[in-house]
Amino acid sequence: MISLAHAQTAASATPGITDFLPLIIIFILFWFMLIRPQMKRAKEQKKMLTELAKGDEIVTSSGQVGKVAKIGDQYVSLEIADGVITHVQKQSVQTLLPKGTIKGI
């Protein structure tokens, strides 16, 4: 009457590059959208800190605005008002302002 149906043996699946293609694409997007811009910003920040000079007007990460009075290896003396000098870490310098910005504030 009815003959029994036997299943064929499945072909063994070998992982190829097409299996990893979505992971590769995600990593490439991650690189260009997150890692690369962050590395570029860190390089610009390091260059700005090495080129920092006396008389430059800066903003620290805490929001202090002032003029550089003295530069050391790790610290910067920041004149925030006439005769008022504070010392901040060099790494806390966030932005270099154009000359004359403090007078406009």
How would you characterize this protein structure?
The protein is α+β, with helices and mostly antiparallel strands and 105 residues long. The protein folds into two domains: 19-51; 53-105, SH3 type barrels (Roll), CATH 2.30.30. It has one helix and five strands. It has one helix spanning 17-50, and strands at 57-60, 65-71, 75-81, 84-89, 93-97. Strands 4-3-2-1-5 form a five-stranded antiparallel sheet. A hairpin with a 2-residue loop joins strand 3 and strand 4 (84-89). The chain is rod-shaped, with a radius of gyration of 29 Å.
SSE inventory with pairings:
Layout: H1 17-50, E1 57-60, E2 65-71, E3 75-81, E4 84-89, E5 93-97
In short, what is this structure?
It contains one helix and five strands, in the order H-E-E-E-E-E.
Helix count, per DSSP? 1
Largest sheet: 5 strands, antiparallel
CATH class of the largest domain: Mainly Beta
Model regions low in confidence, pLDDT < 50 over at least 5 residues: none
Helix/strand class: alpha+beta
- Radius of gyration using CA atoms only: 29 Å
Instruction: Write the element-wise H/E pattern from the N-terminal end onward.
Output: HEEEEE
Number of strands: 5
